Amino acid sequence: MSEKSYPTDAAKFRVAMHEALLGLEEGGIPIGAALFDEHGKLLGSGHNLRVQEDNPAVHGETAAFINAGRQRSYRKTTMVTTLSPCWYCSGLIRQFGIGRLIVGDTENFFGGQDWLAENGTEVITINDPEMIRVMGDFIEANPVLWNEDIGEE
């Protein structure tokens, strides 16, 4: 991936936000994520592709994780996501021991981040007003698709 360094959490968040907005432009669910190493190097980024690829397994966090490729260890990595991770994505973060999680929006959805914090992941919440608005507008306009994404009837 890129050799560019993203030294601040805000800079890292902008990468995930770009991915979310790209997903929205593609007609998908606006959730983006990015995985960084301990020095701020971008390992991989991605966005929710459930609609675009007709694949229920490709959430924003899973796309970023897959695009990062194999790592020897994830303990010193940071996952940045525009929305609180669902239980599926929280499980991925826990399974691989990702050390830090930066969350852009807990207003529209609150997933497993408390569970992650209780199990050793450092969790930082930003609650970015723009992403809260984008996600809220999407949920309001697409309630059936949103409920499908989070496993609700």
Walk me through the structure.
The chain is α/β, with parallel strands linked by helices and 153 residues long. Helix content is 43%, strand content 15%. It is built from 7 helices and 5 strands, in the order αββααβαβαβαα. The chain has helices at residues 9-25, 50-53, 60-68, 87-95, 113-118, 129-141, 143-150; strands spanning 32-36, 42-47, 78-81, 100-103, 122-125. A 5-stranded mixed β-sheet has the order 2-1-3-4-5. The protein is globular and about 40 Å long. It starts with 8 loop residues before the first helix and ends with a helix. The mean pLDDT is 96.
Q: Percent of residues in beta strands?
A: 15-25%
The percent range for helix content is 40-55%
Shape: globular
**Nearest-integer average pLDDT:** 96
Order of helices and strands: HEEHHEHEHEHH
> End-to-end span in angstroms?
38 Å
State the strand order across the main sheet.
Answer: 2-1-3-4-5
User: In terms of structural class, how would the helical and strand content be classed?
Assistant: alpha/beta
Unreliable stretches (pLDDT < 50, length at least 5) are none
| Strand segment tally | 5
Alpha carbon gyration radius: 14 Å
Largest sheet: 5 strands, mixed
Précis, in short:
Helices cover 43% and strands 15% of the residues. The protein contains seven helices and five strands; from the N terminus they run H-E-E-H-H-E-H-E-H-E-H-H. Helix 4 links the parallel strand 3 and strand 4.
